[in-house]
Design brief:
The complex is a heterodimer.
Chain A: H1 7-25, H2 32-58, H3 66-83, H4 89-114, H5 118-137, H6 147-154, E1 156-161, E2 167-171, H7 172-190, H8 192-202, H9 204-209, H10 214-240, H11 252-261, H12 273-292, H13 299-334
Chain B: H1 8-32, H2 40-64, H3 73-91, H4 101-127, H5 133-152, E1 157-158, H6 162-169, H7 178-195, H8 198-208, H9 210-215, H10 220-246, E2 248-249, H11 257-267, H12 279-299, H13 303-323, H14 326-336, H15 342-345
Antiparallel strand pairs in B: 1-2
The chains are: A mainly alpha, B mainly alpha.
């Protein structure tokens, strides 16, 4: 595919333009310290986004239950570590991944058995998980997260001292995000499973006829989304150092928008990890830019809304033109 | 065959499961709340609360008839209310509560016009740029929420003239709330627009098969534009009723209703891929949801338990309708030759 026909290309151009604009207004943007911060704050949404990408490629409508899964797994993992008085971060991840995978698998099973649109099922499980978390936890906020979360969130790579004496460096969260993206890319591009996911997204009936086990693939995708939501939940707890029952929910539409801006099709069968990463970065840079430009946070939603509309318009416009060109080629080809 | 021109028996049987659920819910609530649920004041209360949910659900349904969705519907209602309130405030120099009728009507016209500009923008994004509706309306929703917050600086604007409050809370005819009268009038109007007008016919056709609609010389873009205009018009109307009922406007009022309206459409048998869905279904679904929500409210249940219950109810409805419900009833109707169903002529859709 030609470079300028890919939505990634437009995203890179858009991000570059935004970066140039922000830097021209506030040179602090292009410092290592700030960029590390942008990556750190983008990590949680970035991990969610890889899961959303898988669901979108599988086809149908997007999953919206992942923030509720992250919320539940985060709360349970923090409670568990408090109960045993410490433990280590690997245990927290293990609990969150297993619990998240089970909760996600329930989505997949319901969708497969009852043949209902993903968004309807996941709205239901979102409400179920989130409501039950609040009822069972009575809305109690866990401000004292155990030591391992502080250690994991506070570890810095390439640490150095900034101009004002503060130590800054690359947090482990973007590293975790990168690892998740590599795993996602490997599954999608280098395994039979990945090909099956694309095949089901392209046309489920054809996928069945070439021998794809749709139940197994669907079960995997939704368990994977749940497991990633668990990982994101732990990452979030290490970032904000608390477990508040409603601190993650509400990001679902923004994450979905980022993935779709990154070129994933809402009709299934299309999407890349790179594009997804760019979509997440775009929103993180916009948010950071508003802070650096001293613009009131009231404007954040307006900016995101305009970014989605403009990004989608550019993408749609380019697709329409490509389609028109294709039609011309076909007509020329048929000429005697 | 024109939608809405189906044989009476088939129309009735299509709504039978919903009627059954409604009766079951009313009986259940009446048993759980003896003497309170069926008390006249509670019924008036129900009639007063129903219009907001029902109008938003109908607006959502209109957008779904072509296989779209309107996530911006609640944001548009709040936006309309806020623009109206700010215009009134500006015209009266800060004393909105004393505004006269001409000023009120002018402000409402400005609010409606603002909402229609947004509707045109949304329609343009979907019809001309062919952006998937879920994404276009998501962008518009965030834009509207943002504009609403910027305009109000996150505050609640309150204190409106009696006329505005009357729209949401008053009752001109005996004890029947005005909002309920408005809802009935809208349902009647929508019945003609959807089931009796050329636009309605084209809309259902576009939803059932976009390509066939295009080859039948239907201006599909114009239909899409009108469709989103209608959806946003219903949102604006809801915005006026909400202004009156709360006597205030705020950026994020009733935000959770977006998902509840999607649920109402699902319960009401609206096909999210378009082309299929009856007004009677969505109205019944809205009444059922309002009955449940008012009932559990009277029971004094933990609101978060209610959230969990919504989820459980959707899952139960999914399971029941799969095992016994709609599908088999429609299959039975087809077998008996009582009428031709759209779904029969269409190949199985994905999911």
């Amino acid at each position: 595919m030609k470079l300028f026909q890919r939505s990634e290309f437009y995203l890179v151009v858009l991000i570059a333009l935004i970066c140039i604009f922000i830097t021209s207004q506030n040179p602090n943007f292009l410092t290592l310290q700030n960029l590390y911060g942008v990556l750190r704050s983008a990590s949680v949404n970035g991990i969610f986004a890889v899961g959303v990408l898988f669901v979108l490629i599988l086809g149908g409508t997007p999953d919206v239950s992942f923030p509720a899964i992250a919320q539940v797994t985060q709360y349970v993992a923090v409670l568990a570590l408090i109960a045993i008085g410490g433990g280590n971060i690997a245990l927290a991840f293990a609990i969150a991944i297993v619990l998240g995978a089970v909760m996600g698998a329930l989505n997949g099973i319901i969708i497969q058995i009852f043949r209902v649109t993903t968004i309807v099922v996941t709205i239901a499980t979102f409400n179920l998980y989130f409501g039950m978390l609040y009822v069972l936890s009575r809305g109690d906020v866990l401000f004292e997260v155990p030591r391992p979360f502080h250690d994991f969130g506070g570890t810095l790579l390439f640490a150095r001292e900034g101009a004002n004496g503060a130590v800054y460096g690359l947090s482990l969260l973007p590293v975790l995000w990168l690892a998740v993206m590599i795993v996602g890319w490997f599954i999608l591009r280098r395994t039979m499973l990945g090909r099956s996911i694309f095949a089901m997204g392209g046309d489920e009936v054809s996928a069945v006829r070439i021998g794809v086990n749709t139940f197994a693939v669907r079960l995997f995708v939704f368990s994977f989304v749940g497991a990633l939501a668990g990982i994101a939940g732990i990452a979030h707890a290490s970032l904000v150092l608390s477990a508040i029952p409603n601190s993650i929910v509400g990001v679902e539409l923004e994450v979905i928008a980022a993935v779709v801006l990154g070129g994933a099709s809402l009709f299934g069968g299309k999407g890349t990890v790179t594009g997804t990463m760019l979509g997440v970065l775009l929103f993180a840079i916009l948010r950071n830019g508003l802070v650096l430009l001293n613009i009131s946070s009231y404007w954040y939603d307006v900016t995101i809304g305009i970014a989605i509309i403009l990004g989608m318009s550019a993408n749609a416009w380019q697709q329409l033109r490509a389609r028109r060109n294709q039609v011309n080629v076909a007509v020329e080809g048929e000429a005697p | 065959m024109k939608p809405g021109h189906k044989p009476f028996l088939q129309r009735l049987s299509a709504d039978a499961p919903l009627l059954f659920i409604l009766i079951a819910m009313v009986v259940l609530m009446a048993l759980l709340l003896p003497g309170r649920f069926l008390a006249s004041y509670n019924l008036v209360n129900l009639a007063n609360q129903l219009p907001v949910l029902a109008l938003l659900s109908i607006g959502m349904m209109v957008s779904m008839l072509s296989g779209g969705i309107n996530l911006a519907i609640v944001a548009a209602a709040n936006f309309t209310g806020i623009v109206t309130a700010l215009t009134m405030d500006w015209l009266t120099g800060g004393a909105a509560a004393t505004a006269g009728l001409p000023v009120i009507l002018l402000s409402m016209a400005v609010g409606l016009a603002a909402c229609m500009v947004i509707a045109l923008l949304t329609g343009f994004l979907i019809a001309w740029l062919e952006i998937p509706p879920i994404l276009a309306t998501l962008g518009v929703m965030m834009l509207l929420d943002g504009l609403s917050i910027v305009m109000t600086r996150g505050y609640t604007l309150s204190g409106f003239p009696p006329f505005v409050v009357e729209i949401g809370n008053g009752s001109l005819f005996w004890a029947i709330p005005n909002a309920f009268v408005i809802l009935v009038l809208v349902i009647l109007a929508l019945h003609f627009v959807l089931n009796r007008s050329p636009f309605g016919f084209k809309l259902y056709m576009l939803g059932a098969n976009p390509r066939a609609a295009e080859y039948s010389n239907i201006d599909t873009r114009m239909v899409l534009m009108k469709q989103y205009a209608l959806s946003f018009l219903l949102a604006a109307l809801t915005g006026f009723i909400m202004m009156g009922q709360f006597n205030s406007v705020k950026a994020n009022y009733a935000e959770s209703y977006v998902l509840v309206t999607v649920l109402a459409c699902f319960l009401g048998g609206i096909n999210p891929f378009g082309g299929d869905g009856r007004l009677s279904g969505i109205v019944l679904a809205a009444v059922i949801l309002q009955t449940i929500s008012s009932g559990v409210n009277l029971l004094g249940v933990d609101p978060f338990f209610v959230t969990a219950m919504w989820g459980a109810i959707i899952l139960i409805v999914i399971a029941v309708s799969h095992l016994t419900g709609r599908h088999s009833i429609q299959a039975m109707i087809r077998a008996l030759g009582l009428g031709r169903d759209k779904a029969a002529a269409r190949p199985e859709t994905k999911e």
